[in-house]
Design brief:
It contains one helix and 22 strands. A four-stranded mixed beta sheet has the order 3-4-5-6, with no helix packed on it. Strands 16, 18, 19 and 22 form a four-stranded antiparallel beta sheet that branches. The longest helix has 5 residues.
């Protein structure tokens, strides 16, 4: 019933082995097979797996959990290969994670690191209907997702997503295509953030209404001492601004040699509209009706009168303005003159408030403006591979 071999006593398993001639002998503990309690005395030539053209399967509870296919693909949680992926993981539960990586307090360590060579992809994630394909979360922070499906989601205490480009020209840290576009144009100097869309390239929105003088805005841009808020809502008084910032408003025109040169817009302490026109005296009198669109958008009262500036374009005794309203004004020649000369005019009026947008343009005269936002220097850290 029992065959006993010498030298098998002691701690650990002592497997019975055969030599090339078929002789039995007692192997050293842990040799000749992989032990369930660990192995010692291993060599670089040792391995687990197959030596024929078969896949290597791993099971728990007699159910396959992972497999290394005979073509080298490593599948976890799935029995079939989908696409040409070196590593593929599938979460079976509704809130499962296909791949989870964690880095503990090490500057040069990564939870998940992927590197694509030539035309390869380092990390590929495919999103579902309510969850993103790739999620990055700082430790101790609850992840936040876009309500629709997204390819990548990042949640952090200071930065959710970070992108860096290393080329000095034609490079962008973050590049986004909208409206199912697949091409566009980038400036040769590059940009930190670049957006290309069929109607809007980059969109920014501020939810808060802001307080005076620090205004909430859809965007903020700065270069040295120059800064500008875009899409601004300010209170006391309630004013909507397209652009607020240092410097001046300008446009670009061409000189006689087609070089670009600048022209500057006049600016006033109040919110004003201007219009220009040509009229003619008839027997020393003229009645001028304002453009109805212009009249609809100005505010005229005793505190905010219509300003009219007249320039006669012929010989006369001079003219004066009377009967000014938000819809019209009149001109008479001095000393009862009866000239029929032409004249040019400029009218200036305060912009009317926008009731639907709750603005108070008529109250604005040198309202206090916002300061430049304080800046804090940040640096990108380049880790060694």
């Amino acid at each position: 019933g029992t065959i006993r071999f010498q030298n098998l006593a002691g701690l650990g398993n002592r497997p019975v082995m055969t030599d090339a001639a078929g002789n039995l002998f007692a192997g050293a503990a842990g040799s000749g097979g992989w032990q369930t309690t660990g192995n010692a005395g291993t060599f670089s030539s040792n391995f687990i797996g197959t030596t024929d053209n078969q896949s290597f399967k791993i099971r728990t509870n007699n159910v396959q959990r992972a497999v290394v296919l005979n073509n080298g693909q490593f599948l976890v949680g799935t029995a079939a290969s989908i696409g040409n992926y070196q590593f593929q993981s599938k979460a079976s539960s509704s809130y499962g994670v296909g791949v989870y990586g964690e880095s503990i307090n090490n500057v040069n360590s990564y939870g998940v690191y992927g590197r694509g060579i030539t035309n390869g992809i380092g990390v590929y994630g495919e999103s579902g209907t309510t969850r993103p394909g790739v999620v990055g979360v700082m430790q101790g922070v609850a992840p936040k997702f876009y309500s629709g499906n997204s390819a990548v989601a990042g949640t952090g205490t200071s930065v959710g997503l970070f992108g860096a480009a290393t080329n000095l020209t034609l490079s962008s840290g973050v590049l986004g295509f909208g409206n199912n576009l697949s091409g566009g144009s980038l400036n040769t100097d590059g940009a930190g953030v670049a957006g290309i869309g069929s109607k809007i390239g980059v969109f920014g929105q501020s939810i808060n209404t802001g307080t005076n003088p620090i205004s909430a805005s859809g965007g903020y841009f700065v270069q040295g001492p120059a800064f500008g808020y875009v899409g601004v809502r300010q209170i006391t008084p309630n004013i909507n601004f397209k652009i607020v910032g240092s410097g001046t408003v300008s446009t670009i025109v061409r000189d006689k040699d087609e070089n670009p040169v600048l022209m500057f817009a006049p600016e006033a302490p109040e919110v004003l509209f201007q219009d220009y026109g040509i009229g003619q005296l008839v027997n020393g009198f003229a009645h001028i009706e304002l453009d109805p669109i212009f009249a609809k958008n100005i505010h005229v009262d005793e505190t905010h009168p219509l300003r009219v500036y007249i320039q006669p374009e012929g010989n006369c005794k001079g003219v004066y303005v009377l009967n000014k309203t938000k819809n019209s004004f009149e001109i008479r020649e001095l000393d009862g003159g009866t000239s029929s000369i032409t004249f040019s005019y400029m009218i200036v009026a305060n912009r009317a408030d926008e009731v639907d947008l709750d603005t108070e343009y008529t109250k604005a005269r040198f309202p206090r403006g916002p300061e430049a936002l304080p800046l804090k220097e940040i640096k990108a850290v380049q880790d060694k591979e």
